[in-house]
C-alpha cells in the first residue's frame, strides 16, 4: 500500500467535498452505521484508516478510536485533521500483518475500503476477528465487484498504471463472506446509484438507496460484511 502517498491522501479527502462525494459519503456512512452500530465509549479499531475519514467519524460519535494504516503520508493527514477538529484518536503506523494489540481487546473492529489492497485479506480478517471482544463485532466494508463503481475503477487502472486501483481486488458477496470460514456472518449492500448519477437529484438518490438496501441488490457499490462474536 506504499502507493498511498501524500498526493493520494489529498485527492482522497478532496473528492468527498465534491457534490457527488458528499452524496456517496452519506449513503456509505448510513449503511456503515446500520451495520456497525457504534456506541459511545466503545473501543474501536479502524484498520486501514487512511486519512482518518471513518476514525474521526467514530470519534465524533463518542467512541474510543485507534486508527491503523501502513501509509505514513495518509496518517500525516489524519493527525492534522484530528488536531484541527479537536477529536482524539490514537494513530498507529503499521501494517495489518503486524497489529500490536491484545486479543479480544476491541468492541468493534472495522475496515472501510482497505481489504481490496491486501495481499492476503483472509489472513487479515482472521487477525481482525481475534481482536474482537466477546459480544463485539467485526465490520469489513469493500467496493462490490458487481457494481458500476468497481467497473469504473477497473477501467481507470487499465488506462493508468499509476492508479491506486491497479492491482486492487473487488469483492463479490461470496468472496467477502468467505474471509472468515466457519464463522456465521451477514451482509448489507449500499451505494445503489452509479458514478454518473446527478448529485443534484439528492431525494431521488436517497429513495433509490433505500430501495436498493432493502432488496440487497448486488449492483450496489458498497458491500459490508458483519460478524458478531458470541
How would you describe this structure to a colleague?
The two termini are 33 Å apart. This protein has 230 residues and is of the alpha/beta class. α1 (6-15) packs across α4. The chain has a 7-stranded mixed sheet with strand order 3-2-1-4-5-7-6, sandwiched between helices. α5 links the parallel β4 and β5. It has 8 helices and 7 strands.
How does the SSE layout of this entry go?
Elements: H1 6-15, H2 19-36, E1 43-47, H3 53-60, E2 64-69, H4 72-85, E3 89-93, E4 106-112, H5 121-130, E5 132-143, H6 148-159, H7 173-177, E6 185-190, H8 202-215, E7 222-228
Parallel strand pairs: 1-2, 1-4, 2-3, 4-5
Antiparallel strand pairs: 5-7, 6-7
Spatial order of the strands forming the largest sheet: 3-2-1-4-5-7-6
What low-confidence regions span 5 or more consecutive residues with pLDDT below 50? none
Described by strand count, sense and barrel closure, the largest sheet is: 7 strands, mixed
Give me the Rg, rounded.
Answer: 17 Å
Number of strands: 7
Distance between the termini: 33 Å
Shape category: globular
Mean pLDDT: 94
- What string gives the helices and strands in order? HHEHEHEEHEHHEHE
Amino acid at each position: 500500500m506504499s502507493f498511498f502517498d501524500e498526493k493520494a491522501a489529498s485527492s482522497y479527502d478532496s473528492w468527498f467535498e465534491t457534490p457527488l462525494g458528499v452524496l456517496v459519503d452519506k449513503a456509505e456512512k448510513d449503511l456503515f452505521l446500520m451495520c456497525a452500530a457504534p456506541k459511545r465509549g466503545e473501543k474501536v479499531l479502524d484498520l486501514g484508516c487512511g486519512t482518518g475519514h471513518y476514525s474521526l467519524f467514530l470519534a465524533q460519535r463518542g467512541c474510543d478510536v485507534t486508527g491503523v494504516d501502513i501509509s505514513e503520508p495518509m496518517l500525516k493527514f489524519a493527525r492534522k485533521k484530528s488536531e484541527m477538529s479537536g477529536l482524539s484518536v490514537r494513530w498507529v503506523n503499521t501494517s495489518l500483518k503486524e497489529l500490536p494489540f491484545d486479543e479480544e481487546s476491541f468492541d468493534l473492529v472495522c475496515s472501510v475500503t482497505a481489504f481490496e489492497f491486501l495481499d492476503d485479506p483472509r489472513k487479515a480478517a482472521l487477525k481482525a476477528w481475534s481482536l474482537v471482544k466477546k459480544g463485539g463485532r467485526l465490520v469489513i466494508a469493500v467496493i462490490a465487484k458487481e457494481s458500476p463503481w468497481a467497473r469504473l475503477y477497473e477501467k481507470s487502472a487499465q488506462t493508468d498504471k499509476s492508479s491506486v486501483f491497479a492491482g486492487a481486488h473487488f469483492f463479490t458477496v461470496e468472496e467477502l463472506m468467505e474471509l472468515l470460514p466457519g464463522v456465521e456472518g451477514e451482509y448489507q449492500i449500499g451505494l445503489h446509484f452509479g458514478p454518473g448519477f446527478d448529485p443534484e437529484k439528492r431525494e431521488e438518490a436517497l429513495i433509490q438507496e433505500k430501495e436498493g438496501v432493502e432488496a440487497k441488490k448486488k449492483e450496489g457499490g458498497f458491500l459490508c460484511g458483519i460478524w458478531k462474536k458470541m
